[in-house]
Design a protein that fits this description.
Elements: H1 4-13, E1 17-19, E2 31-33, H2 35-54, E3 59-62, H3 71-75, H4 78-81, E4 83-88, E5 95-97, H5 101-109, E6 121-124, E7 127-131, E8 138-142, H6 148-152, H7 154-160, E9 167-176, E10 191-201, H8 205-225, E11 233-237, E12 249-257, E13 260-271, H9 273-277, E14 282-284, E15 289-291, E16 294-301, H10 302-313, E17 314-317, E18 320-323, E19 334-338, H11 344-358, E20 363-365, H12 371-380, E21 385-389, H13 391-396, E22 398-403, E23 409-413, H14 417-426
Parallel strand pairs: 3-9, 19-20, 19-21
Antiparallel strand pairs: 1-2, 4-5, 4-6, 7-8, 9-10, 10-16, 11-12, 12-13, 13-16, 14-15, 17-18, 21-22, 22-23
Helix pairs in contact: 2-10
The structure holds glycyl-adenosine-5'-phosphate.
The site of glycyl-adenosine-5'-phosphate has 19 residues, from strand 10, strand 13, strand 16 and helix 10.
């Protein structure tokens, strides 16, 4: 299994993920996605949207604002209950999550004297912002989950679309939590992205449990369809005392990360909690009934998925690092190069092929160093195919395509290249 320092080093070196504002020393819990990271993350989000919205008739999308009327957070229970327990070291005043035994143990080792801790206090994770020009400014919050934007738009969506229960609202966007101890690279950040579905059903135990099971399976299947190793994925049910304040029941999808099994998506039965708290209901015209719908939620972390997909794809062989990303996720699908960078005929032909392919597929040009070094560089960023233009190309209009995972090479006609790649990406 990849070690975390191998992942962080690759992420930085090849432009996937950088510490935020690094030239000023960075800021704990904040990260920037570089040229390749943004492509990988966008591919994950695009595929999620495709499977959750475009391929379904019962789900519509939403993009709600990050800052909302603070009353939203009072009604949703977050100002009161969105908390973690915190303890403070009485020697140096560092604060740590009271349930983070590993962190507490590490900290105790850093002191020669015996460490005394304060009693656990609750710490609210909502990030405050102050708005307006006149004092006192309005205290609002950066959203702690993207979810509430969906509930407060429930009526707008019912009134403006033809959706009727059961149906879902999908959303992708940033959320913010003032985490006590951010860590494990991007795993626990203070700013992160979520991709969520809120699926509304009638208030019925049987139907809601079937919907819960249905979405659990769908979500696991989706991660497997992205090439993640099934053996490293599992469900874990929350014990009653670890459930969020809104959840009737909850199960996590976990990945076996280098730092242990870790949650990266939650399937939550939110019951009538949210719509009830916002005093929203649904009129079933056919049945002549009005009720508060129940909600089954799938809440995935874009950053955690990106991190676990990187870890899962990381392979090293002798002196070669290969990122075995599914072609659907790879930042570049193909790299095109001339066999020799100092032969104008080869360069011109290769450039023509590159420019043509680039209009259809994420393609990159590479003419640095020798061919071996180019393969090595492309393997490391997960490019599934390298296309080499050689002297034969000038005669037969065909190129050599080399496969990242098998290193096998195949001769393909230039005119068939796009179709060749599209078929492989689909397959
Ligand atoms: N709307 C429900 C909700 O927000 P959650 O279990 O608190 O549920 C859902 O969060 C997902 O959001 C998590 O499974 C994780 O992938 C992501 N997430 C939560 N906190 C995070 C953090 N501090 N850093 C990165 N991702 C986080």
């Amino acid at each position: 299994m990849a070690k975390m320092d191998e992942i962080t080093s690759l992420a930085k070196r090849r432009g996937f993920i950088f510490p935020s504002s690094e030239i000023y020393g960075g800021l704990k819990g904040f990260w920037d996605y570089g040229p390749l990271g943004v492509e990988l993350k966008n591919n994950i989000k695009r595929l999620w949207w495709k499977s959750m919205v475009y391929e379904r008739d019962d789900v519509v999308g939403l993009d709600a604002s990050i800052i909302m009327n603070p009353k939203v957070w009072e009604a949703s229970g977050h100002t009161e209950a969105f908390t973690d327990p915190l303890v403070e070291c009485k020697v140096c005043h560092i604060r740590i999550r009271a349930d983070n035994n590993q962190e507490i143990e590490n900290h105790e080792k850093s002191h020669k004297a015996t460490v005394e801790w304060t009693k656990p206090k609750t710490f609210n994770l909502l990030t405050e912002v102050y708005l307006g020009t006149t004092e006192p400014k309005l205290k609002a919050y950066l959203r702690g989950e993207i979810t509430q934007g969906v509930f407060v738009n429930f009526k707008n969506i019912l009134d403006s679309s033809r959706q009727r229960i059961p149906f879902g609202i999908a959303q992708i966007g940033k959320a913010f939590r003032n985490e006590i101890t951010p860590g494990n690279f991007t795993y626990r950040s203070r700013e992160f992205e979520q991709m969520e579905l809120e699926y509304f059903v009638a208030p019925d135990e049987k139907e809601s449990l079937e919907t819960f099971e249905y979405w659990k399976e769908q979500r696991l299947k989706w991660y497997v369809s992205l090439g993640m190793d099934k053996k490293k994925l599992r469900f874990r049910e929350h014990a009653p005392d670890e459930r969020a304040h809104y959840a009737k029941s909850a199960e996590d999808i976990e990945y076996e990360a280098p730092f242990g099994w870790s949650e990266f998506e939650g399937i939550h039965h939110r019951g009538e909690w949210d719509l009830g708290r916002h005093k929203l209901s649904y009129k079933d015209e056919e049945a002549g009934k009005e009720y508060t719908p129940w909600v089954i939620e799938t809440s995935g972390g874009v950053d955690r998925s990106t991190l676990f997909i990187l870890i899962d794809a990381y392979h090293s062989e002798k002196d070669r690092v290969i990122l075995k990303l599914h072609p659907k996720l790879a930042p570049y699908k193909a790299a095109v190069f001339p066999l020799l960078a100092n032969k104008p005929d080869l360069v011109t032909k290769a450039k023509t092929i590159y420019l043509r392919l680039k209009l259809r597929l994420a393609t990159v040009w590479d003419d640095r160093g020798n061919i071996g070094k180019r393969y090595f560089a492309q393997d490391e960023i997960g490019t599934p195919w390298c296309v080499t233009v050689d002297f034969d190309t000038l005669k037969d209009d065909a190129v050599t395509v080399r496969d990242r995972d098998t290193t096998k090479q195949e001769r393909v006609a230039v005119d068939n290249l796009e179709e060749y790649f599209q078929n492989k990406i689909k397959g």
